[in-house]
Amino acid sequence: MLLYAIRKLAYGFLIIITVACTVSSIIYLSPVDPARLSFGQLSDAGTVEAKRKALGLDQPLPVQLLYYLRDLSPVVVIDKNNPILESYSGVMFSMSSTKTFVIKWPYLRESFQSGRPVAEILKEAIPLTMILAFCSILLASLLGIILGILSAVRHGTWIEQVAMVVSTIGYSLPSYATAIFFAIVFAYLLQPLTGLHLTGSLLEVNDQGDWIIEWKNLILPVVALGLRPVSIITQLTRSAMLDNMMMPYVRTARAKGLSSTVITYLHVLKNAMNPIITGISGWFASLITGAFFVENVFNYRGLGVITVKALLDFDIPVVLGAVIFTCVMFVVINILVDLLYSVTDPRIKYS
Amino acid sequence: MATNQELLNIRDLRIAFRTDDRVNPVLRGVDFSIPAGEIVGLVGESGSGKSVTGLSLCGLLPEKITNISGSVEFTPENHPIQLVGLPEKEFRPLRGSKISMIFQEPMSSLNPVLTCGYQVDEMIRLHLRYNKKQAKANTLELFAQVGLPNPERIYNSYPHQISGGQIQRVMIAMAISCHPKLLIADEPTTALDVTIQKKILELLVDIRDKFGISILFISHDLGVIKDITSRVNVMYRGVIVESGETKSVLDNPEHLYTRGLIACKPPLYYRPRRLPVVSDFVDIVANGDYFDFKPTKKDGVEENETSEKTSGRHPILSVQNLVVKYPVAKNFWGSPTSWLRAVDGISFTLHKGETLGIVGESGCGKSTLGRTLVHLEKPDTGTALLDGKDLFRQRESEWRRNARNIQIIFQDPYSSLNPKMKIGQAIMEPMMVHGLYQNKALRKEKMLSLLDQVGLLPEHADRYPHEFSGGQRQRICIARALGLDPRILICDESVAALDVSVQSQVLNLLKDLQTQLGLSLIFITHDMSVVNFIADRVAVMYKGKIVETGLTEDIIHHPKEAYTRDLITAIPKWA
Predict the structure, then answer these.
(1) What per-residue confidence (pLDDT) applies to B135?
(2) What is the residue extent of each domain of chain A?
(3) CB contact under 8 A, B108 and A254
(4) Comparing A56-65, B142-151, B172-181, B435-444, which segment has the lowest mean pLDDT?
(5) Would you tell me which of A118, A333, B280, B357 could form a disulfide with B531, CB atoms 3.0–4.6 Å apart?
(6) In this structure, which topology does domain A118-344 adopt according to CATH?
(7) How far apart are CA A214 and CA B239, in angstroms?
(8) ipTM summary value
(9) Given A249, A256, A266, which is nearest B123 (Cβ)?
(10) pTM
């Protein structure tokens, strides 16, 4: 089990490095000059050239890539007088008169636009996105599993048919459409009743200029974001439950005299859990990495808004930072889900 | 009239299933009774309604689509309870506590994600209102009573961690845990090896003696019925055609259908040239909702035949030191650290025109052997010479060209045909893949002649697999394999899933085809009496090795190895 987790982690590192290489190559190969962008049109050639040098953009692409990976790596051996050392936060161990060994946090560099460290920018956005994603998936899982069980138990009745039609529609609607729809209906047309804002983030500045947490700004994004997962989880739960209800062990359970409640919630649901977990975790992973459309519609300043803005500005370090974070989250969630499978299904054993 | 000792009294039980547009009768007026403390048999072929009878006694039929009428009086204590029409609310407390049931598929009959112990505890806590600790103690005691080794370990095991025989013991422990009066055993040993079957049957008799539980034993196997029951009811298409004392029914069957059924079981100690089939004895004509049984004019001729054939001894396939192994444990880098040797150094020779039987219990590697010969598994070491060329040292392209020489027919005819492909198409597909016959017309001609050869009609070509019975599907599979004019045909438990009467038809067909076409057969089976009928020579496999090999007669009459003797003596004797 432990070995399995370690091996998974090793694979995870490989994936992260591959993603970093691929994404940075694509971005650096594009014809836009970030150095020029950061000054606008008024700057002279000399200034731009100096900036380019400072950003390391004058180096050949593979060298730039290696430097980036060096900054990303948690352990590194480096010249003592290298100016980059000032940007690292970690512990240094002197190795010789010139070299030093550093254990550090991954250094994601600074934004081309604002000059702030990328880590700091992400640190502001990630909690907001995490809360949004977590609330959405919680809502979706609860609602989806309940609806799924209900439509499986009431197989062949109108309840099932309604649940299926609604979930098919829910799944077919793109999240930006539902987001705009919800915004118009609940934050504009019904605004006097609901008191919700058309746009807004979880953290807002109030009239006194203090940062406050506006919980109600969470409601519409959570619902808009949760709609598709609800539909998927409903359908997954229903079909997994129905499949399992056909199994001979259900007949055995009935022959034992167990009530249908015990059979449904204990025997069948436990067996149906794995596909449901797969569905939930996949959606959770993609929600955590930023719900681009929904965040932008509500101007909810999470990872999605930051990434889109950075892409438009060609703020390469921010984009790379966001992508790498995404990648790490996927790897971590996948490992956790694998471990979860072995809890819900004793037949799965990792070695 | 029901007497005092009768635990269960079934009168004119009729059951039908409703579909959208029609009502399909399954039971057409069944009468029989089960005396207290006896084991009563219910025997019939698939589709006869025997399982439906069992399920109806437990109230387990799908309520929404079932029409049920008649009377089932169950007398667990002093007062009879009418089970027909009993509301679910009153039926549920009876299930498990007064009537319990065990099923055929041991592997899927227990919940895979709950421990065996929990599944028994759950029932004891429900019906006997024990607390957790009492229930556990009770379960462990039951596990010991049904002969499970190391009850504590089984208690904490999940179903996939123990064997099929052990699961069936857990099921039995569960079934008797709340002291029921009636145990319905629906083909409880059909999926088990004969040696394990024998022990489970002994256990059931033991339970009856110890706890006085009456057992309704449902089976298709007359041998098992003879071994364990005192009374038997023979069922055909929803009616009981004959019932009485087991011994007298089986020794002197009165009904034509019973006679046919008894005759078509392959005998173990002599070898008929052909196996009789039910239609040799009785013509069954549908007459409205019922059936008329008329004797046929044919005589069931039974000639004895010795297994030595006159076929020349030309080796066609020679297998040397074949080893097939699967990794069971891997280290950190993914390379295997320990292996299961499914086939462990096997050598044999197959001669032209002969049938080699390969017998063994489940898990002995006999199927792996067959699958390896047709490249479905990868051999580890060893050679298999066909025409002096090693099958295992061929390039993929070369193998593909030669694949038609060896064809295989699998056990389950239901899952080995593509449900979306018409059977004519299914038979022609391999011919097309191998580029046999120049055009479609010629392939079609061949396909039609194959259908004729296996006893199907030309119009069957345009039908889909679900329109055929199990026996017909197996014929289709045979036709498909023969389409490539193979020289060797491997039959992997090819008749194991079929009813006895259908089984003998298919075995006769295979034997006829072999004589006509000069095929060499490798017949893989667990059933000694099937081997006795079809094989010239037998190899007995145990744990991946051949423990004994020789002429069929010699092996069956004078087995040398203890294991072979066990296999033969475990077969229920009834002839």
Answers:
(1) 95
(2) 2-104, 118-344
(3) no
(4) A56-65
(5) B357
(6) MetI-like fold (1.10.3720)
(7) 74
(8) 0.80
(9) A256
(10) 0.81
